Amino acid sequence: MSLSQYEAFIKAVETGTMTQAAEELGYTQSGLTRALNTLEEQWNLKLLTRGRNGVQLTTEGQQLLPYIRTVLHDQRRLSERIGEINDLREGLIRIGTFNSVSAQWLPGMIKRFQQDYPRIRFELLHGTDTQIVSWIADGRVDVGFVAYPTLPELESEFLYRDPIVGIFSEDDPYARMEKLNISELPNLPYIALNEGVEDEITAILDKNRIILDARFVESDDHAVIAMVEKGLGISLMSVMMIQGFDRRIVAIPLDPQGYRDLGIACRSHNLLSGAASRFYEYARRWIAEEYKPIEL
């Protein structure tokens, strides 16, 4: 058994297909299959079932998955600790993120980090807040950007309070309002966005006892903004999510005001590699410098 076999197993589980796992690892599909078959033969266990619907864990595979992740994580920490001794010349940082953070924050953070550590690599995993928190807890990512506060068993820090606004087409009569009273929302054609921290918007609606019958539900913020621009409905988004779009839309503050609070989290600072720990600090410093401090 070898670490490359463990990596093949983990990647097959994460991607759900042998084809994609082979591509991401730089294997041929037959080479990946041989590595997994050899691992199963060595352990005398069936770890995966493979069929038309992709790769599925067996019961034995489910039981061993967290242990294999731990072995790979510890090996990565060992390699990166050696890299720290050599001034962080090598390393991999895995980050859990969602669309608006990837668009507005990560390019600046990573650029600044790589000015000092140009050979550190990054792997970005996009998901919902629930997924990102789970990835942090089970070690699939080193750090993640999350809705704040998050689970108490994680170590986390507040980064930024992002206002929620209503977005309208420039041609919509409501676009001339100074504020959008949230009680008006049930009377408007609504386009719901599932962007990654959608529970923040749900919490605002629940707090104000607003029930919406969404005309559309979309997971892509670009698509929602385009639909709003064409007059198909209105939506609620955070200010961060609409920055950088050259669209004929108008953002109107909510009354009462609404926000989403964003933070950064990890399982434990003591478990972070040197590269991940350094990036965590760079991310905090970048926010403090690029955005005005906001008191909770």
From TrEMBL:
Family annotation (SUPFAM superfamilies): Periplasmic binding protein-like II, Winged helix' DNA-binding domain
GO molecular function: DNA binding; DNA-binding transcription factor activity
Gene Ontology cellular-component annotations: cytosol
Signal peptide (residue range): none
The keyword Transcription appears for this protein: yes
Record keywords: DNA-binding, Transcription, Transcription regulation
Pfam families for this protein: HTH_1 (PF00126), LysR_substrate (PF03466)
Regions that span the bilayer: none
Family recorded in the similarity comment: Belongs to the LysR transcriptional regulatory family.
Protein name: LysR family transcriptional regulator
UniProt lineage: Bacteria, Bacillati, Bacillota, Clostridia, Peptostreptococcales
